[in-house]
Specification:
Number of helices: 4
Number of strands: 0
Helix content: 55-70%
Structural class: mainly alpha
Distance between the termini: 25 Å
């Protein structure tokens, strides 16, 4: 039996379903943005791409943690 996905990644299936893009594409968008601060990126995803706060926050948190090696 597989372990339950927890934390920001638990939002990924609903993000893909609701917005129609794979998570890798969203992460690439976050990484290609000139913005670097967490909340700047969250607000950018919300205003420019129509994501809800929780979904944007999960994507940014997971991507930044992944990039920092955490």
């Amino acid at each position: 039996m597989s372990a339950e996905v927890k934390g920001p990644a638990s939002y990924f299936p609903s993000i893909e379903k609701k917005y129609g893009r794979p998570i890798t594409e969203w992460k690439d968008l976050v990484r290609s943005s000139p913005l670097t601060k967490h909340m700047e990126l969250v607000n950018w995803l919300k205003s420019e791409h129509g994501l809800g706060h929780g979904h944007a926050n999960a994507l940014v948190a997971h991507t930044l943690a992944e990039d920092s090696g955490r």
